[in-house]
Amino acid sequence: MRIVVLGGGESGFGAAYLAKKKGMEVFLSDKGEIRESYKQLLMENGIDFEEGMHTEDKILNADWIVKSPGIPKKADIIFKANQKGIRLSSEIEFASEFTNAKIIAITGSNGKTTTTSLIYHILKNDGLNVGLGGNIGKSFAKQVADESFDYYVLEVSSFQLDDIQNFRPYISMLLNLSQDHLDQYNYNYEEYALAKFRIAENQENDNFFIYNKDDEMSMNLLEKLAIKAKMLPFTMKEKVSEGAYATEDRIFVKLQEEFSMKIKDLSLVGKHNVANSLAASIAGKILKISNESIRNSLMTFQAVEHRLEIVADIEGVKYINDSKATNVNACYFALESMKTPTVWIVGGVDKGNDYAEIEDLVKKKVKAIICLGVDNEKIIEFFRDKKEFIYDTSSMEEAVKISKSISEKGDTVLLSPCCASFDLFKNYEDRGKKFKEEVLKNEQVIIEN
Questions:
Q1: Could you give the C-alpha distances from 88 to 78, 82, 100, 183, 391, in angstroms and in order?
Q2: What are phi and psi of 297, to 5 degrees?
Q3: Which residues hold ATP (predicted)?
Q4: Largest CB tally within 10 Å, which of 255, 363, 381, 445?
C-alpha cells in the first residue's frame, strides 16, 4: 500500500513513521518548509519526502492520503485527490486503525486542552497505562507505532474530524459549541457544529457519548441526530438522574454509584472549569475509577500552560496568562472567573468577533483595557463609550509596562486576547511566553503553583 502524508509537522511525521513501521511505501509532502528536527527524523527513518511543493504525480498515485489538519479542505491538491477517489484521512483516523486501545476523544469549541489534560491526569493518577495525543502533546500515530498503551486520551479538532471514516472512540465528549473557524465552514454555524458531532458518528451502543445539556446548539442538533452510543449529560443548571451536575457548592456524578465533592476543593477555578470537571469525572466513572482517586486527581491537577495560567503575584497584583483564549467565547469564561478588578490585555487578528457577547462582563469586571495588536481600531471603537481607560499598544513589552503602571494591589492583569496571534507572534504559545517573560522581567515575584 502506498501512503502519502501531506504536512511535515508533528502529526505528519508521526503518520509517516507509523506507515513505514507497518511496512508501507511512504512519501511525505509539505508545501512549506519542514522544521529541521522533523527533516532529520524523516532521513533517519528512511522516509522519502519533499518540501516547498506538492508534486502531483507523487501524491495522486496514493492508495491512502493522510492529511494535516492545517491544510484547508479547499486546497487544490485535496480537490484533485477527492476527484480521483483516493481515501483521505486525518492522523487520528489513520492511527486508530492500528491500535486496539480504548480511546477517549474530546472535542468542543473551548476547554478541550484543559479537559483532555485533566482526564489524562485522572487515568494516569489511577495507575492506568495511558497515552496523551491528538491536538496536544506527542503524535498519536508515533505513540501507536512505539508504545503499547491500553488507553489514549485525545484532544480532537473539527478539522481532524472532517477527515475520519471509521474513527470510533470508546468514550467521546463534546464540551460546548460556539462560533469559531466559520471561515472554513462556509460561515455556517450549524455546518461547523455538525463537524464536531462527527466524533460520535461511528460509535455503537457499547460506547459512551458525554454532552453538555446547557449548550443550546448541541441540544438542537441532538434532536436531529441518531447517536447510538449511551448518552450521558453534564449540566450546571439542573439535577440529572444519570450523568453529572453541579449545585452552588458541590459537583455530583450519578453513574451506578454516586460521586460528589465540594467545588472549592477543585484545583481549577471558574464556572467553565466546573463544567470541564463534571465531564472529566463522568469519563472517570465510566472507566470504574474510584471516587477517592477521582477526588484526588481533581484536587491535584495543574492548569495547562496559556489557559488561565497564574504567572505571578507582584506587589499584590496577580498576572494571568490566558493566551489560548483566541475567540470571544473563551475570553467570556476567563472574564467570568475574575474575582478582582481586572486590567484586560486584548487584541490580535480578529476572526469576525462580536464583542457584544462580553460587553456586560467588561463593564462589571474590567477597570482598564490594553489593546495589543497591529490594528486595534475595532476593539477601541466598540469599547470607547463603555470604558474610560483604553490603551493602544503594538508590543508585549509596551502592554505589560502599562499594565504594571496602572494596576494596584488587589488587581488582576489578564491576558485573554479574544483574537488569533499571527499579527505580532508566531502562535498563541509564543504570545503567552512573551507575556510571561515581560511580567517576570526584573521582578522579585511570588510564583504560584
A1: 8, 8, 22, 21, 47
A2: -65, -40
A3: 108-114
A4: 255
> Which cell numbers in the block locate residue 423?
499579527
Q: What is the CA radius of gyration of the chain?
A: 22
Q: Tell me, what's the pLDDT at 188?
A: 76
Q: 3-state DSSP call for residue 236?
A: coil
Class of CATH domain 309-440:
alpha beta
Question: 23 phi and psi, to 5 degrees?
Answer: 80, 20
- Which of 58, 42, 57 lies closest to 4 in space, CA to CA? 58
CATH class, domain 93-300, is: alpha beta
Residue 444 falls in which region: left (phi positive, over 0), alpha (psi -120 to 50) or beta: beta
CATH of domain 2-89: 3.40.50.720
Alpha-carbon distance of 269 to 377, in angstroms, equals 32
Amino acid code (one letter) for 286: I
Which residues line the annotated binding site?
A: 108-114
Does position 446 have pLDDT exceeding 50, yes or no? no
User: What is the distance between the alpha carbons of residues 322 and 429, in angstroms, rounded to a whole number?
Assistant: 10
Check residue 183 and give its pLDDT. Answer: 65
* Known binding-site residue numbers for ATP: 108-114
pLDDT, tens only, 309-338: 889 999 999 999 999 999 898 899 899 989
Ranges in the chain annotated CATH 3.40.1190.10: 93-300
Mean pLDDT for the stretch of residues 268-285: 93
CA dihedral 81, 91, 420, 427 (to 10 degrees): -120
pLDDT at residue 447 is higher than 70: no
